[in-house]
What we know:
Elements: H1 2-6, H2 9-28, H3 41-122, H4 128-156, H5 176-180, H6 184-189, H7 214-218
Helix pairs in contact: 2-3, 3-4
Organism: Clavibacter michiganensis subsp. michiganensis
Catalytic activity: ATP + protein L-histidine = ADP + protein N-phospho-L-histidine
Protein name: histidine kinase
Amino acid sequence: MSLAIRRRLKEIAAAAAVWIAAVGTWEVAGLSYLPVTPEELPLTAALILVVLGLLILLGLYLGGRRELLASLRERARLAEEEQALRSAQAADRERTRIAREMHDVLAHRLSLVALHAGALEYRDDLDAAEVRATAGVVRDNARTALPELRGVLGVLRDPSGAPATLPRNRRSPTSPRSSTRPAPSASRCTRTSTPAPATTCRGCPRPPRGTPTAPSRSA
């Protein structure tokens, strides 16, 4: 039966032939405990062949069932690996998307910092209150840009494979100081310094590189 379980037909045929020859020789030589008469010999041979066939069929069935279970386990393992790979790729795409959105907002903040700093550099007709207001806008945007930069790096470095989320404490691109105080450098120097909303996405146009030098041109 062990040869039949292995499902190798040549080995099964060779073993069956040897076994039939050995049993036949044993019976013909009269070495059996129950001697067989010539009249009973055909029936005995048929019985031996039936038992041998049943053993071979049982071994083939067990071997096929074993191979089927092994193939099912292998398919399940491959499916799990493929699902894990797809989940990891989806998480990477989600982290990249969030990082791009945060990059757009961060780029807008830095452009505001450069814009107001350029206004302070080139405008010499501002009074002390206007200078303090513009410096406050620069300070608030620079302070808020640091955690946003850390958030971008954290999203890109996340090894857990779970989709990252935006920081909860992220404020809008316009700080409370810039929304409550008038920004003289922005109102007098350029009309393109209006802060964008916090939901700036990667599809929105980024601030042009020449924007920080706009105060110098208008001044």
